[in-house]
Structure formats: structure tokens, C-alpha cells
Here is the input.
Amino acid sequence: MVSVGHKRAEDSIRIAANPQEAAIPQALRQLNKEAILKLEKLFDIAYFIAKIEMPFTTSNVHDLK
Here is the structure.
């Protein structure tokens, strides 16, 4: 039986050797152009809110779209 830590270490080594196997890059490759544009817009909004140090809980992200 292999420990959870050992399995994570093996996965980390495998992904470091081949980054294309990582879950996030795989998911991003499967997104369509419209979904990518929506994500970019949300990240831009989140960045702006963080940059001006505005509490995220007081912002209405839906109005900023």
C-alpha cells in the first residue's frame, strides 16, 4: 500500500516532467473562446478590486461586467 504523501510526490514528479498532464492546463485547453473571454474578464475585475484594495465583499462584481 502506498501512502497519500508518496502518491502526491509521484504525481508531482510526473507533472514536473510533463506539465501538459496537469489538471488546470488540460481544463483550459478544453474551454471554448467565449468561456476564455469570460474568465479573462472576471480575472481582470478581481485584479482591479485587489489593486485598489477594495474589499471584495463590498463590490458587486455583476455590475462591473
